[in-house]
Amino acid sequence: MSAVSKNFNILSFFIASAITLISCSGGGEKVTEEEIIPADELPTKDLAEIKEDGVLHAITTYSSTSYFLYKGMPMGFEYELLSRLAKHLDLELKITIAENFDDLITKLNQGEVDLIAYGLTITEPRQKLVSFTEYHYVTHQTLVQRMPENWRSLPGYKIDKNVISNTLELIDDTVWVRENTSYEQRLKNLQDEIGEEIPIEHIEGNINTDEIIRMVVNGEIDRTVADYNIASISKTYYPILHINTRVSFAQRIAWAVRKNSPDLLKAINSWIAKEKKSDDYYVIYNKYFKNTKAYRRRVQSDFFSKNSNKISQYDAIIKENAAKIGWDWRFLCSQVSRIQI
Question: What is the pLDDT of residues 116-132, one digit of tens each?
Fold first, then answer.
Protein backbone atom coordinates (compact mmCIF):
# COMPACT_ATOMS: atom_id res chain seq x y z
CA MET A 1 0.00 0.00 0.00
CA SER A 2 1.42 3.39 -0.96
CA ALA A 3 2.00 6.21 1.53
CA VAL A 4 -0.71 8.27 -0.18
CA SER A 5 -3.20 5.40 0.14
CA LYS A 6 -2.36 4.95 3.80
CA ASN A 7 -2.87 8.65 4.47
CA PHE A 8 -6.12 8.60 2.53
CA ASN A 9 -7.45 5.65 4.55
CA ILE A 10 -6.44 7.20 7.86
CA LEU A 11 -7.96 10.57 6.94
CA SER A 12 -11.18 9.09 5.64
CA PHE A 13 -11.65 7.03 8.79
CA PHE A 14 -11.02 9.77 11.28
CA ILE A 15 -12.87 12.57 9.51
CA ALA A 16 -15.89 10.40 8.77
CA SER A 17 -16.03 9.39 12.40
CA ALA A 18 -16.87 12.97 13.42
CA ILE A 19 -14.33 12.81 16.16
CA THR A 20 -15.53 13.86 19.58
CA LEU A 21 -13.39 11.52 21.61
CA ILE A 22 -11.59 12.24 24.80
CA SER A 23 -8.05 12.72 26.07
CA CYS A 24 -7.40 10.66 29.16
CA SER A 25 -4.70 11.69 31.54
CA GLY A 26 -3.21 9.27 33.97
CA GLY A 27 -5.12 6.10 34.65
CA GLY A 28 -6.81 3.92 37.19
CA GLU A 29 -4.81 3.29 40.31
CA LYS A 30 -7.33 0.94 41.95
CA VAL A 31 -6.04 -2.44 40.84
CA THR A 32 -8.02 -5.46 42.02
CA GLU A 33 -6.93 -9.09 41.84
CA GLU A 34 -9.54 -9.62 39.12
CA GLU A 35 -7.87 -6.98 36.94
CA ILE A 36 -4.48 -8.66 37.09
CA ILE A 37 -4.48 -11.19 34.25
CA PRO A 38 -1.67 -13.77 34.42
CA ALA A 39 0.67 -13.46 31.44
CA ASP A 40 -0.15 -16.99 30.26
CA GLU A 41 -3.85 -16.08 30.07
CA LEU A 42 -3.36 -12.97 27.93
CA PRO A 43 -3.96 -13.13 24.16
CA THR A 44 -0.80 -14.40 22.47
CA LYS A 45 0.33 -11.84 19.93
CA ASP A 46 3.94 -10.75 20.07
CA LEU A 47 6.12 -9.16 17.41
CA ALA A 48 6.25 -12.26 15.16
CA GLU A 49 2.46 -12.45 14.95
CA ILE A 50 2.19 -8.71 14.40
CA LYS A 51 4.68 -8.86 11.53
CA GLU A 52 2.79 -11.78 10.03
CA ASP A 53 -0.39 -9.71 10.18
CA GLY A 54 1.49 -6.71 8.74
CA VAL A 55 -0.35 -4.17 10.91
CA LEU A 56 0.59 -2.43 14.15
CA HIS A 57 -2.59 -1.79 16.12
CA ALA A 58 -2.15 1.09 18.56
CA ILE A 59 -4.57 2.88 20.84
CA THR A 60 -4.23 6.53 21.83
CA THR A 61 -6.48 9.40 22.88
CA TYR A 62 -7.82 12.46 21.13
CA SER A 63 -6.34 15.70 22.47
CA SER A 64 -4.47 18.83 21.45
CA THR A 65 -1.12 17.09 22.01
CA SER A 66 -1.55 13.32 21.45
CA TYR A 67 -3.69 13.10 18.33
CA PHE A 68 -5.94 15.55 16.47
CA LEU A 69 -6.80 16.77 12.99
CA TYR A 70 -5.65 20.17 11.78
CA LYS A 71 -6.78 21.27 8.34
CA GLY A 72 -7.80 17.69 7.71
CA MET A 73 -4.38 16.21 8.47
CA PRO A 74 -3.63 13.93 11.45
CA MET A 75 -1.12 15.46 13.85
CA GLY A 76 0.09 15.02 17.43
CA PHE A 77 3.07 13.82 19.44
CA GLU A 78 1.79 10.25 19.67
CA TYR A 79 0.67 10.20 16.03
CA GLU A 80 4.03 11.33 14.66
CA LEU A 81 6.00 8.91 16.81
CA LEU A 82 3.65 6.05 15.94
CA SER A 83 4.10 6.77 12.26
CA ARG A 84 7.87 6.61 12.66
CA LEU A 85 7.67 3.41 14.72
CA ALA A 86 5.44 1.67 12.16
CA LYS A 87 7.82 2.65 9.37
CA HIS A 88 10.78 1.39 11.40
CA LEU A 89 9.05 -1.98 11.93
CA ASP A 90 7.89 -2.06 8.29
CA LEU A 91 4.25 -2.28 9.37
CA GLU A 92 1.04 -0.57 8.38
CA LEU A 93 -0.34 1.58 11.20
CA LYS A 94 -3.91 1.34 12.46
CA ILE A 95 -4.92 3.70 15.25
CA THR A 96 -7.83 3.22 17.64
CA ILE A 97 -9.05 6.23 19.61
CA ALA A 98 -10.02 5.53 23.23
CA GLU A 99 -13.45 6.73 24.25
CA ASN A 100 -12.54 6.52 27.94
CA PHE A 101 -9.60 5.55 30.10
CA ASP A 102 -10.76 1.97 30.64
CA ASP A 103 -10.42 1.34 26.90
CA LEU A 104 -6.65 1.80 27.02
CA ILE A 105 -5.69 -1.13 29.20
CA THR A 106 -8.83 -3.18 28.55
CA LYS A 107 -8.44 -3.21 24.76
CA LEU A 108 -4.72 -3.92 25.11
CA ASN A 109 -5.18 -6.91 27.39
CA GLN A 110 -8.12 -8.22 25.37
CA GLY A 111 -5.86 -8.32 22.32
CA GLU A 112 -7.73 -5.68 20.31
CA VAL A 113 -4.60 -3.52 20.10
CA ASP A 114 -0.88 -4.20 20.46
CA LEU A 115 0.31 -0.97 22.02
CA ILE A 116 -0.94 1.86 24.23
CA ALA A 117 0.61 4.89 22.58
CA TYR A 118 -0.34 7.48 25.14
CA GLY A 119 1.60 9.27 27.84
CA LEU A 120 0.91 7.12 30.88
CA THR A 121 2.64 7.86 34.16
CA ILE A 122 4.63 4.82 35.25
CA THR A 123 3.16 3.75 38.59
CA GLU A 124 3.50 0.60 40.66
CA PRO A 125 -0.19 -0.38 40.36
CA ARG A 126 -0.09 -0.07 36.57
CA GLN A 127 3.03 -2.18 36.37
CA LYS A 128 0.89 -5.09 37.58
CA LEU A 129 -1.29 -4.70 34.50
CA VAL A 130 1.07 -3.81 31.64
CA SER A 131 4.72 -3.64 30.65
CA PHE A 132 5.93 -0.10 30.20
CA THR A 133 8.32 0.93 27.45
CA GLU A 134 11.33 3.11 28.09
CA TYR A 135 10.01 6.50 29.12
CA HIS A 136 9.50 9.21 26.52
CA TYR A 137 9.88 12.18 28.82
CA VAL A 138 9.77 13.27 32.45
CA THR A 139 7.28 15.73 33.88
CA HIS A 140 5.49 16.40 37.15
CA GLN A 141 1.93 17.02 38.26
CA THR A 142 0.93 20.58 38.98
CA LEU A 143 -2.07 22.40 40.38
CA VAL A 144 -4.00 24.32 37.71
CA GLN A 145 -5.89 27.34 39.07
CA ARG A 146 -6.81 30.90 38.08
CA MET A 147 -4.80 34.00 38.82
CA PRO A 148 -6.61 36.72 40.83
CA GLU A 149 -8.77 39.00 38.68
CA ASN A 150 -6.31 41.92 38.73
CA TRP A 151 -3.24 39.71 38.36
CA ARG A 152 -1.67 41.74 35.57
CA SER A 153 -1.19 44.72 37.89
CA LEU A 154 0.05 42.70 40.87
CA PRO A 155 3.66 41.90 41.80
CA GLY A 156 4.54 38.24 42.05
CA TYR A 157 4.43 38.01 45.83
CA LYS A 158 0.87 39.34 45.92
CA ILE A 159 -0.21 36.84 43.28
CA ASP A 160 1.26 34.07 45.46
CA LYS A 161 -0.87 35.31 48.37
CA ASN A 162 -4.02 35.04 46.29
CA VAL A 163 -3.48 31.51 44.94
CA ILE A 164 -2.70 28.16 46.51
CA SER A 165 1.08 28.14 46.44
CA ASN A 166 1.70 25.26 48.86
CA THR A 167 0.08 21.83 48.95
CA LEU A 168 -0.75 22.35 52.64
CA GLU A 169 -3.16 25.05 51.53
CA LEU A 170 -5.23 22.39 49.76
CA ILE A 171 -6.61 21.28 53.14
CA ASP A 172 -10.40 21.78 52.95
CA ASP A 173 -10.10 23.25 49.41
CA THR A 174 -11.77 21.16 46.74
CA VAL A 175 -9.84 19.85 43.72
CA TRP A 176 -11.69 18.56 40.64
CA VAL A 177 -10.23 15.55 38.78
CA ARG A 178 -11.45 12.50 36.88
CA GLU A 179 -11.96 9.41 39.00
CA ASN A 180 -9.37 6.61 38.96
CA THR A 181 -6.62 8.73 37.47
CA SER A 182 -3.05 9.20 38.64
CA TYR A 183 -4.11 12.75 39.56
CA GLU A 184 -6.72 11.47 42.00
CA GLN A 185 -4.24 8.96 43.41
CA ARG A 186 -1.64 11.70 43.92
CA LEU A 187 -4.16 13.81 45.84
CA LYS A 188 -4.98 10.82 48.05
CA ASN A 189 -1.28 10.28 48.68
CA LEU A 190 -0.98 13.95 49.61
CA GLN A 191 -3.74 13.49 52.16
CA ASP A 192 -1.71 10.74 53.80
CA GLU A 193 1.45 12.84 53.69
CA ILE A 194 -0.07 15.94 55.29
CA GLY A 195 -2.49 14.10 57.57
CA GLU A 196 -5.51 16.13 56.52
CA GLU A 197 -8.35 15.78 54.04
CA ILE A 198 -8.21 17.30 50.57
CA PRO A 199 -11.80 17.31 49.24
CA ILE A 200 -11.93 15.70 45.80
CA GLU A 201 -14.79 16.19 43.35
CA HIS A 202 -15.02 13.87 40.37
CA ILE A 203 -15.42 15.06 36.79
CA GLU A 204 -17.13 12.87 34.23
CA GLY A 205 -14.81 10.48 32.42
CA ASN A 206 -15.77 11.76 28.97
CA ILE A 207 -14.30 15.21 29.65
CA ASN A 208 -10.69 15.48 28.54
CA THR A 209 -7.81 17.32 30.18
CA ASP A 210 -7.96 20.21 27.71
CA GLU A 211 -11.62 20.75 28.54
CA ILE A 212 -11.07 20.43 32.29
CA ILE A 213 -8.40 23.12 32.13
CA ARG A 214 -10.81 25.28 30.13
CA MET A 215 -13.39 24.75 32.91
CA VAL A 216 -10.87 26.30 35.31
CA VAL A 217 -10.36 29.24 32.94
CA ASN A 218 -14.12 29.79 32.67
CA GLY A 219 -14.66 29.62 36.42
CA GLU A 220 -16.76 26.45 36.29
CA ILE A 221 -14.36 24.81 38.73
CA ASP A 222 -11.69 26.37 40.92
CA ARG A 223 -8.77 24.06 40.35
CA THR A 224 -7.59 20.75 38.92
CA VAL A 225 -4.37 18.77 38.52
CA ALA A 226 -2.55 18.15 35.23
CA ASP A 227 0.85 17.11 33.92
CA TYR A 228 3.01 20.20 33.84
CA ASN A 229 3.90 20.01 30.15
CA ILE A 230 0.19 19.93 29.23
CA ALA A 231 -0.65 22.72 31.67
CA SER A 232 2.29 24.78 30.40
CA ILE A 233 1.25 24.66 26.74
CA SER A 234 -2.35 25.49 27.77
CA LYS A 235 -1.11 28.55 29.67
CA THR A 236 0.29 30.00 26.46
CA TYR A 237 -3.31 30.35 25.24
CA TYR A 238 -4.86 31.05 28.67
CA PRO A 239 -2.43 33.38 30.50
CA ILE A 240 -4.85 33.65 33.44
CA LEU A 241 -3.78 30.16 34.51
CA HIS A 242 -1.46 29.69 37.47
CA ILE A 243 0.49 26.44 37.13
CA ASN A 244 3.48 26.87 39.44
CA THR A 245 2.30 24.82 42.44
CA ARG A 246 3.82 21.34 42.20
CA VAL A 247 1.90 18.41 43.66
CA SER A 248 4.32 15.63 42.75
CA PHE A 249 7.95 14.77 42.19
CA ALA A 250 9.26 14.07 38.69
CA GLN A 251 7.42 11.23 36.97
CA ARG A 252 8.27 9.12 33.93
CA ILE A 253 5.82 9.10 31.04
CA ALA A 254 5.77 6.04 28.78
CA TRP A 255 3.78 3.78 26.43
CA ALA A 256 2.77 0.21 27.31
CA VAL A 257 2.37 -3.29 25.82
CA ARG A 258 0.91 -6.54 27.15
CA LYS A 259 3.01 -8.30 29.74
CA ASN A 260 3.43 -11.30 27.42
CA SER A 261 4.84 -9.28 24.48
CA PRO A 262 8.57 -9.22 25.35
CA ASP A 263 9.78 -9.13 21.74
CA LEU A 264 7.56 -6.16 20.88
CA LEU A 265 8.70 -4.41 24.05
CA LYS A 266 12.34 -5.03 23.18
CA ALA A 267 11.85 -3.74 19.62
CA ILE A 268 10.07 -0.57 20.81
CA ASN A 269 12.67 0.11 23.50
CA SER A 270 15.46 -0.27 20.94
CA TRP A 271 13.65 2.14 18.63
CA ILE A 272 13.06 4.68 21.43
CA ALA A 273 16.75 4.58 22.37
CA LYS A 274 17.69 5.23 18.75
CA GLU A 275 15.10 7.98 18.34
CA LYS A 276 16.26 9.79 21.45
CA LYS A 277 19.71 10.12 19.89
CA SER A 278 18.23 12.01 16.94
CA ASP A 279 17.31 15.68 16.75
CA ASP A 280 13.97 14.79 15.13
CA TYR A 281 12.68 13.23 18.34
CA TYR A 282 13.09 16.47 20.27
CA VAL A 283 11.83 18.56 17.38
CA ILE A 284 8.59 16.54 17.53
CA TYR A 285 8.31 16.98 21.31
CA ASN A 286 8.93 20.72 21.09
CA LYS A 287 6.41 21.01 18.26
CA TYR A 288 3.56 19.93 20.55
CA PHE A 289 4.71 20.93 24.03
CA LYS A 290 7.04 23.90 23.51
CA ASN A 291 6.07 25.72 20.29
CA THR A 292 3.64 28.20 21.80
CA LYS A 293 3.10 30.17 18.59
CA ALA A 294 2.02 27.09 16.62
CA TYR A 295 -0.18 25.90 19.50
CA ARG A 296 -2.04 29.22 19.67
CA ARG A 297 -2.50 29.24 15.91
CA ARG A 298 -4.00 25.76 15.93
CA VAL A 299 -6.26 26.32 18.93
CA GLN A 300 -7.65 29.54 17.44
CA SER A 301 -8.24 28.01 14.02
CA ASP A 302 -11.66 26.98 12.69
CA PHE A 303 -9.79 24.11 11.02
CA PHE A 304 -8.67 22.59 14.34
CA SER A 305 -10.89 19.52 14.69
CA LYS A 306 -11.53 20.13 18.39
CA ASN A 307 -13.19 23.41 17.39
CA SER A 308 -15.19 22.28 14.36
CA ASN A 309 -15.42 19.67 11.61
CA LYS A 310 -14.04 22.05 8.98
CA ILE A 311 -11.01 21.06 6.97
CA SER A 312 -10.42 24.17 4.85
CA GLN A 313 -12.10 27.40 3.80
CA TYR A 314 -12.95 25.72 0.50
CA ASP A 315 -14.98 22.83 2.00
CA ALA A 316 -18.32 23.85 0.48
CA ILE A 317 -16.95 24.38 -3.05
CA ILE A 318 -14.91 21.17 -3.06
CA LYS A 319 -17.76 19.11 -1.58
CA GLU A 320 -20.10 20.36 -4.29
CA ASN A 321 -17.76 19.46 -7.15
CA ALA A 322 -15.85 16.40 -5.87
CA ALA A 323 -18.71 14.03 -6.66
CA LYS A 324 -18.58 15.07 -10.32
CA ILE A 325 -15.09 13.64 -10.68
CA GLY A 326 -15.58 10.72 -8.28
CA TRP A 327 -13.14 11.95 -5.63
CA ASP A 328 -13.58 12.04 -1.86
CA TRP A 329 -14.07 15.70 -0.93
CA ARG A 330 -12.34 15.21 2.43
CA PHE A 331 -9.19 13.97 0.77
CA LEU A 332 -9.15 16.93 -1.65
CA CYS A 333 -9.72 19.42 1.18
CA SER A 334 -6.91 17.90 3.23
CA GLN A 335 -4.50 18.19 0.31
CA VAL A 336 -5.42 21.87 -0.20
CA SER A 337 -5.02 22.57 3.52
CA ARG A 338 -1.75 20.67 3.77
CA ILE A 339 -0.06 23.37 1.75
CA GLN A 340 -1.10 25.92 4.37
CA ILE A 341 -0.13 24.00 7.53
Answer: 999 999 988 899 999 99
